[in-house]
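<backbone_tokenisation>
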Amino acid sequence: MLAFFVGWRLHGVATGVGAATAVAVISFARARRQTRSGALVTVSLAFVLIQAVVGLISNSATAYLSQGVLLSGIYGLVFAGSAAIRRPLAGVFAAETYPFPAQVRESSTFRRIFSVISLAWGVYLVCRSALRMVVLLAGGVGLFVVVDALTGFPLTTALIVWSFWYAPRAFIRSEEWGWAFNQPPESA
């Protein structure tokens, strides 16, 4: 966002789009060098490139920025929808970062805990998208960048911290899995 804003303010939409795209390509290359799974970063890069094409063709900062806002809102609906159908997307991400045994992943407790987390992320993403779209359309790009910064990193970080705090506590307090956390330590 910062790269786009600086480029846009200095030389217009094309420079802003070019700067933001360059940052995205560099981020993509770094992620691939760190041997992360390529799926998410590849999809993200594809979106950035499509967003860049639309921004360049339209020569409109609003058209360029609104795509990310809409995509974020769609992500929010997907998170909330996954909770509603009891196939929580947050549980998919959690299972990629922690090796939950199959019995735990298939449990009602797992679905309940990660449905709550998915719903929280969904509400956040939809509300943030709605606010940013209103600000972009009514307040302009400058105010949008401020609102984007204030509702982005700080709130996302808080939600990540809450997610990592909530999940283990919910497991510990559950009737189904609480016993596994309340075992006395084994002596060596």
User: Anything to note?
Assistant: The chain has a mean pLDDT of 89. The longest helix spans residues 108-151. Residues 51 and 64 are 6 Å apart (CA to CA).
